[in-house]
């Protein structure tokens, strides 16, 4: 490793990276926005009418002829725009000239350029071997579903995300995670894929094709390893919907969310709410009719601040529920200057979702006028054959001091792509992910059975060191010295109190990249509040957009963790790009809350631009009508009449196909429904007609009929059935594992394929606790006698301390 000294610079790490953007929509827009923030030159190629987001407002606010929609202005900030008519005779040739001097191209299947054969990703990869080609599509370019119609809503249904976490009341339809989150997380993977391809190009001298599936991104971001869970536990995570308590409640002056992930937290909650007697009743929270009114009464009698003060004292995970009207005024966000003014001065937008110590971000840049820039000119990019055949991150040594899901999911991606990842735990404090998921303490070696731990830590090594001891601290510092990257997600006080902040870590290893993933950041009044997915979702606006419009919002209970993990990966890759150029390390502060606020940007943007408060719509959405879940004939695998299909109609062509397929329902031919505005206006009436037709037919029949007609439709899947989806099987998304304690199970991998990767990515299952103590510590000079003493003293070990 090169040992260097950090010095802050104005140069951004991607200033020599040229990206041609052939995508439209949020996923490509957000991915290329992240690249532009890192300094890349992004040339957005648009048809003469421009990206549809130029005319988009989620609230329906009027956009002037000489303006662009506020979401577009945010996503396109700092990019350039070139207009090419995709119907023109020289369209492909003009794009080819751009690609000759570019490093990467981002393509989406819904782009007006997607129909040009010469610009298909496989052709681009073949004809321009120097390029990193990132393809974004609902299901991926290969497989039996590759050409099927889909929307984010139907993809959530296929993934099992809608029903799998029991979200929604038992007597109502289950409910989606609101707010375009699937598109935003796909955008994050787009940026990660582009930089992974850039690293690969340096190793091999060639470009690559990265085939990104939005379905797979949603599976990884909105479900908790359900296939692994079912294989290991022989049961689903949940079998029915239930009210999650305490959840989101109405306080005297606003909404507040509270949730308990451990037994201790639940017992502390009961004491806090003056119901210590509930501690003796393990099943109290499973009787919502009895306990929910008592919780609601207790919360309603107090203000949000009063409840939060108590929750901090009792260490209960909590947060105010942010909405577009209050989020910018929350004290923590004001202190951290999370929101900045758009360059046009017309609205607020979130700043970059992480801080990196080695360089200074540019001020927010304006979005381009349509066609404002000339053709890209520059040096011709070339490639050479040969070079390394290693995985992109081979040789990168990562010390993973993370726990639960957000941190492990980030380092899991690195391990799959070749990094040597050492998962650090202690016998006193093992990874909390080993303790969740319904694992019984009566099971032999119970700490090895958690599906959450297995799913997020495959391919890693495990070392246990209790660094609260002098011997452990010394060992840890010696281990740090051997690593390129350190990733941790404790609350800030943990490493600070241990004397292992970035300043000390940099003294040990001057060129190290240290990624810190605190829930609420390294500063601000909420700094030391413990954060879990649900509290991040509450404070970040994700909860506000999820649930039924006539009741309190519902926590997604998933996206807050993996979204933070993937933003941390992208921040890490930027810091590594800087180190590759300068030899200097960096501190990356990738807080969970900043990542959440980044993917809910549309809420604050729309509110400050138009005064409109976007809110939850159940299973409806702003860009499709009809859209919803419709109950079908029969019972589900648990014997309940809970079968549903998801349907979303985004345009007149799809509506015409639906009407033709449902020819037995002539009422759908009503002229009031023939235009998009009419379908939104008469959504309830359409719902009744479609529901009456669906409830007399099997879901499989409905999906076969409508999908073959080009209608975006899906069966609402239980998430543990993901491995039965033929598209995921065709793309080898799941890999079979053999674990020495739990036996065989299936493991999810990456949401993209990449040329040059081996057929199998997961080389070994999640490690046993302390499995690699001997190998890794002996490499530091620790002797066999030393190991025995360290184990006797509890500094290291292979089982949790009792």
Name the beta content range: 5-15%
Number of helices: 28
The proportion of residues forming helix, as a percent range, comes to: 25-40%
Largest sheet: 7 strands, mixed
Radius of gyration: 26 Å
Strand ordering within the main sheet: 3-2-1-4-5-6-24
The stretches of 5 or more residues where confidence is low (pLDDT under 50) are 1-7
Gross geometry: globular
Question: Ends: how far apart?
Answer: 40 Å
**What average pLDDT do the residues reach?**
94
Which class do the helix and strand fractions yield?
alpha/beta
Number of strands: 24
What does this structure look like?
The protein has 802 residues and is an alpha/beta fold. Helices cover 34% and strands 13% of the residues. The protein is built from 28 helices and 24 strands. The strands form six sheets. It has a seven-stranded mixed sheet, sandwiched between helices. Strands 12-18-17-16-13-14-15 form a seven-stranded mixed sheet. β13, α13 and β14 form a beta-alpha-beta unit. α6 packs across α7, α13 packs across α19 and α19 crosses α20. It is globular.
Concise synopsis of the structure shown:
With about 800 residues, this protein is of the alpha/beta class. Helices cover about 35% and strands about 15% of the residues.
């Amino acid at each position: 490793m090169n040992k260097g000294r950090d010095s802050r610079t104005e140069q951004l790490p991607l200033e020599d990276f040229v990206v041609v953007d052939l995508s439209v929509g949020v996923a490509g827009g957000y991915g290329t926005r992240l690249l532009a923030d890192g300094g890349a030159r992004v040339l957005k190629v648009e048809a003469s009418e421009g990206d549809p987001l130029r005319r988009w407002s989620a609230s329906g606010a009027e956009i002037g002829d000489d303006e662009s929609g506020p979401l577009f202005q945010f996503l396109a900030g700092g990019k350039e725009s070139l207009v090419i008519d995709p119907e023109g005779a020289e369209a492909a040739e003009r794009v080819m000239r751009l690609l000759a001097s570019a490093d990467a191209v981002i393509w989406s299947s819904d782009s007006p350029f997607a129909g040009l054969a010469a610009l298909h990703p496989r052709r681009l990869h073949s004809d321009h071997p120097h390029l990193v080609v990132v393809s974004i599509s609902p299901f991926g370019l290969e497989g039996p579903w590759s050409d099927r119609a889909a929307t984010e809503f139907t993809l959530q249904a296929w993934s099992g995300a809608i029903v799998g976490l029991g979200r929604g009341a038992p007597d109502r339809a289950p409910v989606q995670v609101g707010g375009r989150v699937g598109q935003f997380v796909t955008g994050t993977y787009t940026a990660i894929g582009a930089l992974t391809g850039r690293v690969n190009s340096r190793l091999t001298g060639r470009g690559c094709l990265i085939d990104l599936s939005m379905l797979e991104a949603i599976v990884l971001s909105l479900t908790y390893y359900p296939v692994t869970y079912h294989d290991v536990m022989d049961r689903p995570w949940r079998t029915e919907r239930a009210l999650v308590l305490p959840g989101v409640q109405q306080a005297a002056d606003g909404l507040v969310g509270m949730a308990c992930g451990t037994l201790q937290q639940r017992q502390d909650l009961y004491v806090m709410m003056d119901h210590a007697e509930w501690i003796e009743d393990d099943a109290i929270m499973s009787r919502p009719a009895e306990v929910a009114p008592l919780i609601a009464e207790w919360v309603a009698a107090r203000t949000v601040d009063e409840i939060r003060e108590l929750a901090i004292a009792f260490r209960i995970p909590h947060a105010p529920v942010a909405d577009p009207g209050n989020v910018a005024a929350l004290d923590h966000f004001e202190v951290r200057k999370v929101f900045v003014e758009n360059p046009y001065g017309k609205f607020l937008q979130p700043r970059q979702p992480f801080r990196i110590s080695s360089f200074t971000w540019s001020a927010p840049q304006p979005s381009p006028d349509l066609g404002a820039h000339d053709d890209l000119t520059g040096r011709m990019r070339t490639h050479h054959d040969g070079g390394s055949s290693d995985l992109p991150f081979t040789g990168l040594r990562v010390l993973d001091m993370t726990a639960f899901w957000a941190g492990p999911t980030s380092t899991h991606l690195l391990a799959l792509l070749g990094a040597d990842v050492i998962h650090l735990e202690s016998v006193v404090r093992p990874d909390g992910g080993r303790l969740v998921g319904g694992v019984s303490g009566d099971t032999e070696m119970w700490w090895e059975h958690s599906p959450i731990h297995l799913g997020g830590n495959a391919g890693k090594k495990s070392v246990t060191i209790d660094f609260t001891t002098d011997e452990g601290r010394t060992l840890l510092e010696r281990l740090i010295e051997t690593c390129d990257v350190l990733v941790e997600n404790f609350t800030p006080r943990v490493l600070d109190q241990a004397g292992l902040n970035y300043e000390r870590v940099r003294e040990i290893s001057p060129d190290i990249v240290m990624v810190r993933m605190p829930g609420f950041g390294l500063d601000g009044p909420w700094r030391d509040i413990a954060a879990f997915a649900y509290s991040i979702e509450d404070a970040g606006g994700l909860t506000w957009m999820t649930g039924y419009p006539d009741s309190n919002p519902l926590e997604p209970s998933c996206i807050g963790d993996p979204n933070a993990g993937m933003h941390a990966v992208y921040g890490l890759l930027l810091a590594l790009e800087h180190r590759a150029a300068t030899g200097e390390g960096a501190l990356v502060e990738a807080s969970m809350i900043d990542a959440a606020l980044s993917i809910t940007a549309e809420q604050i943007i729309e509110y400050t631009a138009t005064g409109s408060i976007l809110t939850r719509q159940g299973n409806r959405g702003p860009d499709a009508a009809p859209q919803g879940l419709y109950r079908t004939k029969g019972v589900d695998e648990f014997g309940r009449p809970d079968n549903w299909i998801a349907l979303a109609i985004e345009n007149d062509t799809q509506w015409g196909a639906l009407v033709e397929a449902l020819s037995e329902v002539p009422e759908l031919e009503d002229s009031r429904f023939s235009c998009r505005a009419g379908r939104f206006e008469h959504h309830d009436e359409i719902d009744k007609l479609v529901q009456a037709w669906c409830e007399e037919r099997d879901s499989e029949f409905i999906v076969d009929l409508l999908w073959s007609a080009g209608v975006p439709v899906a069966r609402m899947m239980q998430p543990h059935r993901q491995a039965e989806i033929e598209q995921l099987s065709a793309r080898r998304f799941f890999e079979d594992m053999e674990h020495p304690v739990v036996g065989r199970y299936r493991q999810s991998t990456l949401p993209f394929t990449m040329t040059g990767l081996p057929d199998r990515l997961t080389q070994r299952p999640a490690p046993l606790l302390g499995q690699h103590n001997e190998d890794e510590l002996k490499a530091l000079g620790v002797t066999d006698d030393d190991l025995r003493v360290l184990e006797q003293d509890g500094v290291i070990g292979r089982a949790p301390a009792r």
